[in-house]
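Quick start: read one record
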Amino acid sequence: MLRKVIIYALAVALTVATVSYSVLGQAKTRVDTVRARGKLICGVSGSTPGFSFPDPVSGRMVGFDADFCWAVAAFLDVPDVEFANLTSASRIPAVISGSVDVVFRTTTQTISRDDQVDFGPVTFFDGQRLLVRTSSNISGLDDLNGARICVATGTTSERNITDQLRQRNFRFQLVTFAEAKQGFDGMAAGRCDVFTTDASQLTAFRSTAPTPADFKIVGREFSDEPLAPMFPQDDSKWAKVVDYTVWGMILAEELGINQAVARDAAQVADLSSKDPNVKNLLELKGGAIQRVVRLVGNYGEVYDRYFGPRQKTAIARAGTRNDLAKRGGAMTSRPFRN
């Protein structure tokens, strides 16, 4: 009898120990960490016109990438965002170390980077081109033999231009900088003959020149640059937050749910009663996407806010991959349904 009691007691103790270990061993996800902290720490450039830059009046960080940071915070119902300005070289180490929760920083998704961090959906499709002075005779890659080239170090832009010119057996000199803005300033100051990076950034930096007409973008795109958010690996719960924030903003545009609609309870109720897709989008996850669209708008609104035809940094969207898939582009969502 005593032997049975001892065996039973040991079994109970082992079960309790196993359960306790399992509970204690469950690592907190970044969702838990961000909600407990009460703010999202989001990595950005902080110096790229159109994408992330200080508002000249308020000093507040604004831009296409910055709005996506606020969108992720709204999805989680977290009231604040702390922006971390990162260089091209420091962005991946910041993600790996966990010092930032997510990075929206004109980052191209590549296979080698994907070995180090996880990526979310593409927010902007881009391609690399060249920026020169209007008086320059350079019209494309084939004119770069012997050229001095300004470029940000540690970027796909640096590798792409090097590959292109070595393939042509050209002589060239790379003048490297920690930041793309420094590369543009270097070219404007005459330190090089051409500045190269993603076409969207060339457009943005050109718009900041005292006389934008002094510069022109030349040549065809010679790379594929799908820009996407990145975050620490192996946290599927956090990945879903980033993924469905982006997808939800795209779907909101597809369904015609803009900021004004999302803020109008009567319109929301009317549209939700007529279309189950609208109802699911705005109600699932505790109304996460409705909070997002109320705060920053749908994908098209964010795009137009910084790259629309009325902006200095205007970048045409129609006829490009940045348009909605239903209009011939590549921007598409995943279904929002139970």
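The chain has two domains: 31-125+227-327, 128-223.
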